[in-house]
Amino acid sequence: MTDATPRQLLFERLVDAQEAAHCLNVPLYLLTHPEERQRLGVPHYRVGKLVRFKVRELMRWIESQQRFRREVAQGGRDA
């Protein structure tokens, strides 16, 4: 995956929680509950009272979570 320019990110389509959850195959509550979003560090944007997501950022977030879990699991086996 190539890195996008700031201009491309600015014009990337924002999606609602339902569409983001569907795209990522994650439970909807992870994206709709503010406490869960904050606890997990889910990247999101407030547009007035609405919460919106960039799918590309969510994909990167999931990849980073998976990398972190792999590193923790490997560290646990090495100890």
Q: Based on the structure, what is the oligomeric state of the protein chains?
A: single chain
What order do the SSEs take from the amino end to the carboxyl end, as H and E?
HHHHEEH
Q: What share of the residues does DSSP label as strand, in percent? A: 5-15%
Helix proportion range: 55-70%
Helices and strands, with pairings:
Blueprint: H1 6-10, H2 17-24, H3 29-32, H4 34-40, E1 45-47, E2 50-52, H5 55-78
Antiparallel strand pairs: 1-2
Describe the 3D structure.
By secondary structure, this protein is mostly helical. The chain has one domain (13-78). It has helices at residues 6-10, 17-24, 29-32, 34-40, 55-78, and strands spanning 45-47, 50-52. Strands 1-2 form a two-stranded antiparallel sheet. The radius of gyration is 15 Å and the shape is globular. The model has no long low-confidence stretch (mean pLDDT 86).
What's a quick, concise take on this entry?
This protein is mainly α and 79 residues long.
Keywords:
79 residues; mainly alpha
